[in-house]
Amino acid sequence: MNASAPAPGASGAPAPTAPSGSRITVVVLTRNHVRQTVDTVARLTALPEHPHVIVADNGSTDSTISLLASLFPQVRIVQCLGDRGMAGFNRAIALAPTEYVACCDDSTWFAPGALAHAAQWLDQHPQVAVLNARVVGQDEREIHPACLMLNATSPGDDALPGPALAGYMAGACVLRAAVFRALGGYEERLSHGGAEELAALDVLAAGHSIVYCEPALAHREPLYRWFTRAQHCTHARNSAWVAWMRLPVRDALAATGRALVVFARQRSLGPAGFALLRGAFWALRRRRVAPAHVVLLTRQVRRAERLVRAGIPAMAEKYDRAGQRAW
Asked: Where is this region: Disordered (predicted)?
């Protein structure tokens, strides 16, 4: 977190005061997407919930910072010195003045009333630490494939207000800031893939729950994100590292096997395999196996994912330009 600093013009200034009714802070993660960021911040500042808005900038070199500062003086900007990926959320969440924080990227924004619903759910269910929003495109009938998968693979829990999850979308969620801070935020070495996976396991291991929240509606444009070959390899490698940090040996070996399959499919078995091995020692030094109920939940979700992918061809056949699944 020491690489972050308030943006020029905001340095040393107190957090802007939002209307007294604000109970939630929205953190927008961005880097060099000035048009999308301005549009997103404009939508968020117009919400009826009047949330605090913090922009977490990952070292933009375009006009993002200066334009935001001139158009939205009420918005706090926290600027990192470089691209810290998902770890860019850490400093901004640490500065959030509210109990609840909604996280999104510069192409995602929450619908009017969504944040109020999320706050109500968290008020009524103190065991829930993270709510995953329902993410749709401009047409609300088109739901993000990741949300479909999360909902379809939930094992269910009658004590929770929605489907129980073993993971969540870091760019479309509402969380308890105190829980996030207590867990240390997102791991910077995993910040370009896998950081939220590790955070989810730690949230569950600490005795909290993660829930899919239908009323917390978020829009995203574009709805799908296409991964490059390098990104596919990074995600697979980092998932294997997370497994070695938190899951039993059999699960870690299975994650490693899946990573090697991805490397081979991306024709990067040598370089990506070496990177996986080199980072394995770092992961093992941080090994702390999750409780049995968390491991059971992850296994249930993994089995359900296989069944869903096999049983719903329309979902299983969403391929990106590199020939790999886009989610």
From this structure: 1-20
Are both 66 and 193 inside the same structural domain? yes
Amino acid at 266: Q
Backbone angle region of 12, left / alpha / beta, with phi > 0 → left and psi within -120 to 50 → alpha: left
Same structural domain, 11 and 79: yes
**126, 53: one domain:** yes
Strand order across the beta sheet in which 100-105 lies: 4-6, 76-80, 52-57, 24-30, 100-105, 172-176, 128-136, 209-220, 108-110
Task: Quickly tell me which residue has 């939930």 as its tokens.
Answer: 154
pLDDT in tens, 282-312: 999 999 999 999 999 999 999 888 887 766 5
Q: Select from 80, 81, 76 the least CA-distant residue to 95.
A: 76
**Looking at 162, 197, 220, which one is the last position of a domain?**
220
Exposed, middle or buried, 254 (CB in 10 Å: 0-12/13-18/19+)? Answer: middle
